[in-house]
Amino acid sequence: MQEEEKYMMRCLTLARAGASSVAPNPMVGAVVTHRGRLIGEGYHRQFGEPHAEVNAIASVREESLLREATLYVNLEPCSHYGKTPPCTELIIRKRIRRVVVGCPDPYPEVAGRGISILRKAGVEVITGVLEQEAIALNAFFITAQTQQRPYVILKWAQSADGFIDRIRTNPSERPAQLSTPATRRIVHKLRSEVAAILVGTQTVWLDNPSLTVRHWAGASPVRVFIDRNLRIPSTYHLLDSSVRTLVFTGQSAAGRQGVEYILLDFSQPVIPQILLHLYNRQLYSLLVEGGARLHRGFLESGLWDELQVETGSIHLGNGIKPAEIQHNPSIEHLKTVCFPASGHASKMAFYAHKHVNPNAGMDTKIV
Question: Who contacts 67 (Cβ-Cβ below 8 Å, separation ≥6)?
Answer without folding.
Answer: 94, 95, 96, 97
